[in-house]
Amino acid sequence: MINQNPKHMKDYYHILEVPFGSDSIDIKKAYRRLALKFHPDKNNTPNAVIKFIEITEAYEVLGNKKNKLYYDEIYQEFFIINKNNHIKTTSFKTFEQKQKKWSEYGKQKAKEYSSIPFNKFIKQINKDLKVGINYIPNIIALFIVVIFFIKLLTVIPESINKNLGITFILLIILLGLFYLFRQLLIVAIADFKEEIKHK
Question: Which pTM does this prediction carry?
């Protein structure tokens, strides 16, 4: 099967200045850093607009799980496996179409982002960066609260016979733990919904 060399296979990892295979958090951080540097409201050099479009296109591809999986396959074939930078004929046409589509979408998103006032844009990308980060601390906190709650449930029956004052205090702590568990759960669910909405 004949190999073909695309006119320009864009290296989105290089554009965002991250290593191949970087996770979504690193990609978001890289985009944030570069977007703040090249946003048209912040940077009025002639090259800034082109650079802003370029990094936005890269982010929209690598920040999307489905697109990233497809791009990573082609990336390995083009940049890693074949030293001559070729893509198999079967993949070539599909990739060219996708890259054209990604380029158009990148321009559209860059135009949309550059029309947002700079302060609002900063808030938006900071919010995007926070999405999903709270999962691990939330899960750990929920787990600790559940352990304490179960422990208290085993201690309360013993304390009833010994001291009613201590039992009352333990019941208040138990209610506090229940409230804390409820609040952490609400935050975890909200974070999960935000992640789904973002995807």
Answer: 0.61
